């Protein structure tokens, strides 16, 4: 890959930038405090105050500095803004689902860690093959339509698990809905990435891509913290997982709504 990239990829103009040290520190402090305020054991109110102050200062600083780590102008475009929010929520769903489901399979069904890993094959195999299908369809179907197809499959699979209940058994509650989730993820992630860097200049593309990766990471952490906090009072593993799936379904449904906003904007243009 390295040799091929050296031969075939064209060299483009680069833009020198200074490291936004202050912005980086404020963002790390703000987001870390926010996550701890949701799922921490002590000083949660203090953490929330630190998070609010840190994130406000971060936004104010980014609006004034000449070389921001996150240019606020990126959020002026509705399609990109919707894509960032949709991805944030999508990763909240994804990390929560992939973290809690194997634990539930071990606690409810008595699966070993290896069996729990193999239990995800109904999700990973369809995702692997459908990702190739999505690539071919992207030349024939618009990005926003592919995104909506993916979201519908993902919501359907997640809602099915929430409605059926894990106590019904692995096949009906986990495996079959996983097929829908795998197809949905294959069709969703790439279009969300494309929408996240849409309508940017060459100078802004790197920053837009950075924001995509940032909301990708933060969304997973915040989403998982919220879901875990909401179900921490349940000692029964089946009840805990079923309630978690309700919250997880809510996250992916909200992501689908913002994805629909991308679809509407794309349809107008």
Automatic annotation (TrEMBL):
Listed GO MF terms: transmembrane transporter activity
One Pfam family it belongs to: MFS_1
Primary site of residence: membrane
Keywords: Cell membrane, Membrane, Transmembrane, Transmembrane helix, Transport
Keyword Ligase: no
Any single GO CC term annotated in Swiss-Prot or TrEMBL for this entry: plasma membrane
InterPro entries: MFS, MFS_trans_sf
Membrane protein topology class: Multi-pass membrane protein
TM region(s), chain numbering: 21-38, 44-61, 82-105, 117-134, 146-166, 172-198, 210-232, 244-263
Compartments, as annotated in UniProt: Cell membrane
Protein's recorded name: Major facilitator superfamily permease
